[in-house]
Specification:
about 200 residues, alpha/beta, Rossmann fold, seven-stranded mixed β-sheet, about 35% helix, globular, binds S-adenosylmethionine
Length: about 200
């Protein structure tokens, strides 16, 4: 699945197909406000950061120190060009080692559903280790149960995998998080499930 997803983002016209005209929207800003209210320091990690636009730019503009991780070389290169104030790393979610309690916030938008759902709990547990006890997380997750759902982004084949929102909330709780807010977003023909949570 990783190879296909990486290939899809390397080869596809991601910006033309998916990003065009998109900005941080009012509801998203509210969710970010909720995140900012829960944290007391500036260090944020963005998992599956893509080209860094618009979210990492938004975070940098708010005064945060942003690190981003993405499996696509192309996206990391663009992110570095787009937001020189942030630091971007190329690699899989599980490849890069950040120390425990390293971040005030961990965020991830439209990315976690690109790894097999059987690995989501392991990733939530890893995120719990990276985020400080008084930190918080803001994540978008799959809107429904999907087992290797196939589709297209930017003219290339793409894969998604997710449990239901209810099961995702259960897994987050089991990984040591308390759920603060959820939001189901309808964007073009897609639905996404946002979760704001903090360490229990
Ligand atoms: C739909 S894009 C979202 C990008 C960005 N978060 C945004 O909101 O515009 C999904 C991103 O996740 C990255 N990604 C997918 N699987 C990954 C993995 N296993 N490790 C790291 N990044 C991954 C892709 O390369 C892509 O940039």
């Amino acid at each position: 699945m990783r190879e296909k997803v990486k290939e899809g983002y390397e080869e596809g016209d991601y910006e033309g197909d998916y990003r065009e005209g998109r900005d941080v929207r009012e509801k998203e800003k509210e969710l970010f406000e909720g995140l900012f209210n829960e944290i007391s320091g500036p260090e944020v990690l963005d998992l599956g950061c893509g080209t860094g636009l618009p979210f990492d730019q938004y975070l940098v503009d708010q005064g945060f120190e942003v690190k981003g991780l993405d499996i696509s070389d192309k996206h990391v290169k663009k992110a570095r060009e787009n937001i020189p104030e942030a630091e971007f790393f190329q690699g899989d979610f599980f490849e890069k080692e950040f120390g425990d309690n390293s971040f005030d916030a961990v965020v991830s938008f439209y990315a976690i559903f690109h790894i097999p759902r059987e690995e989501h709990e392991k990733l939530f547990t890893q995120i719990r280790e990276w985020v400080k006890d008084d930190g918080a997380v803001l994540l978008t997750l799959g809107p429904e149960k999907m087992d290797e759902h196939r589709g297209e982004i930017g003219g290339e084949e793409m894969l998604w995998s997710s449990y239901s929102p209810e099961k995702n909330l259960e897994l987050l709780k089991e990984s040591g998080f308390k759920i603060l807010e959820t939001y189901t977003e309808d964007y073009r023909e897609e639905t996404h499930f946002w979760v704001l949570a903090q360490p229990e």
